[in-house]
Description:
The chain has 180 residues and is of the alpha+beta class.
Amino acid sequence: MRKARKKTVVVQAYRLGEDSRVLEEMIAEGEIKVRGDGRYEVFSRETGDKTGEIVHEGDYIKLDSSGSPYPNSAEFFEENHRHLAAEYYEQQSKPVEIWTYGDPPCPELRYLIEHGRLTIHEDDPEKYFQALLWGTELSADKDAVIVFYRIIKDEAGRITDADFNFVAGDEFRETYEILD
Length: 180
């Protein structure tokens, strides 16, 4: 696997549950659905239009380079961003492992597939990768990048869990840099 990290960039982000004209517009346009129980559904580029990614009040919504919303847990966001002013934050990135179509299979990818956490659909290039993430079925096209945020191994070095997500290929190329 290769390593990458987010470029140091300034992003717009909004905390769910706080007053924000932008959040109100996303709710009105159906990009965010208020569930009424302290949870929200966020319709990111990877969700399609049936069910959104499930997030909680206090989590953050960032806008990707196309203006689409995507969620970050409060814990992750606050650990990896520095507040500048208003809705602007500087993203502070740590190296992550990545896998793209065409890379040799790696143990982390095999783990996800063998444990039913990731499925690959050769017959559907637009929904090539599918996984249950953020409480809903997410899909990404063949051009997407699988980003591993955390890989957990036991004392013998066997993978026991992995935190991952999909990043659309164009978004990855614009906002990440490959590390040597």
